[in-house]
Each structure stands twice: as structure tokens, then as C-alpha cells.
Amino acid sequence: MRSGRRSEKRAFLILLLVVVVVLGAAVYTYVSNQGSSTSPPGPVGTHLYTWSANLTIQIYTPDNTVITIPIPAHIGQQAGIWMNHTLDDYGTPGVTAPVFTTASLDNSSIYDGYVYVSPTKYGHTYTIADFFSIWGQYISNSCIQVPGYPRLCTGPQGTLWTEVNTNAIPSTASHILQDHEIISITFFQN
After folding, report:
1. What are the extents of the domains in the chain?
2. Nearest 5°: phi and psi at 4?
3. Each residue's pLDDT tens digit, 13-32
4. How far is CA 62 from CA 67, 151, 158, in A?
């Protein structure tokens, strides 16, 4: 009789230990993925992560006038400006592209200063050129075209200069957008 109880007690303790280890692993996995930009995907249509990059576009004229180009709110959003749909499979279909802008809290028609990257599936990295394409504008490593201006290219017209977190980058269009970046795209006219 004693060995039977001892076996039951041992089996219970082993089962309890297994449950504690499994629960501990589950809690650890959950906690370690909190705040992770690349946490595992949830149900279909949910965002894998949401990154934001502050974007400013300016033109410096020959007389040193600084023109800040307004970036519209709702680029890449339903009922907003959504010109190129080649990346739609990575966004929320019919709702948002994977790269988009939103409105400020104070005014629904004013850009809040950020470009958001919020895909619903893996398989693509998002660049400055992707954002411009969704917006319906043009950018390359040497040229930029924004509303109200002709295409401006490095050469006789001036110089296209891009900084990310105050560091110059050589490839504007192909720069992959990352979380918390401060991106300044400037064209210095001659």
C-alpha cells in the first residue's frame, strides 16, 4: 500500500513539475514578445508590427528660401491618396497599404509628421520609394518629384540630399524604412 501511494505522489509531482515548466515557458514567450516589432503573426489581417519614421521634405531655393513640402494625411488609406496598389497584399486589403500616413490628432486633414510601416504579412521590406509610389510621386537616388514642382534632379538643377538620423545616406530611394528614424529629404536648388 505504501509503495502505491508513493508512486501516485511521485506521478503527481512529475505532472506538477511538467505543468509548471510548460506554463513558465508560455509566460516567458509571451513576455519576451511584448513590444517586439517582429512578434509572431496573429489572425489574418492583423498587423505584424507598426513602425514610424518622421519624414520632412524641403526645397532650398537659390535665394535661401526654405520651402517645406506638405505631405498629405491619409496616403495609403481608404478614401485618401492611394495611387499605387502593387503592395496591397501586404497591407489590410481595401483599408491601408503597408506604408501610409495618418492625420494629426488636432486636425484630420493635416499630416502628423510620420510615415507608418504596418504590414500584415512578411515577405517585403519597405523603402522610401515604396512610400513615394503609393503617394503617386517619384523619387530616385538623384531625383525627386512632389506636388506642385517639376522633377528636380541632382546636376545643373541642384543637389538631392537625404539624411537619416542626421547621417547622410547615398541611396535615397532604396533606403529601407526603420522604426524611430528621422528622415530629412532636401533638394538644394542652384
Report:
1. 1-34, 51-189
2. -65, -45
3. 787 777 777 776 665 555 44
4. 11, 17, 9
